[in-house]
Design brief:
globular; 82% helix; mainly alpha
């Protein structure tokens, strides 16, 4: 799975996976996700991003979930990952798992998932002005949350 590839990539570059594994254990125990997030020893920026994500899921409005996923992830990731791969390759780093993970996302999100996700959002909004506005507002908020998350990560990179 993409998630397993992500964990393998984290291990390859020496990143600590203990917090994400702890989160998975708590989720498997079927505890309330919002209580789990609050209990985690992570930054408020990450908590805010997670709380937003799971609030969208809990709201259970398919057109909003699809829009947030599409514009907050599928539409952004390929270009971002292309730049990361270029930088890694220019520095001649040996991180094969990470490069494979990133290139797989570039290929799948850019060529397949992205266009399908855009069609899905259009279809789910059904030319309904209310749904379109909800999807647009949620997408804008998703982008703001993601920018705050990325800014936090960039600030904390060593």
């Amino acid at each position: 799975s993409h998630f397993e590839m992500y964990l393998d990539s984290m291990k390859e570059i020496g990143a600590d996976t203990s917090k994400i594994k702890h989160l998975i254990r708590l989720v498997k125990e079927r505890k309330d996700i919002f209580k789990i997030i609050e209990s985690l020893q992570i930054s408020n920026e990450i908590k805010d991003f997670l709380n937003f994500t799971f609030s969208v899921i809990k709201e259970n409005k398919t057109h909003i979930t699809a829009a947030v996923f599409t514009f907050g992830r599928e539409d952004l990731i390929p270009n971002m990952f292309i730049e990361i791969v270029r930088k890694i390759k220019s520095e001649n780093k040996t991180v094969d798992s990470l490069i494979y993970y990133l290139e797989r996302h570039i290929e799948m999100d850019g060529d397949h998932h992205g266009p399908m996700a855009m069609n899905m959002v259009t279809s789910l909004c059904e030319n309904n002005d209310k749904k379109i506005k909800e999807a647009l507002d949620a997408s804008k908020l998703a982008l703001k949350k993601r920018i705050k998350l990325w800014d936090h990560i960039r600030k904390n990179l060593k």
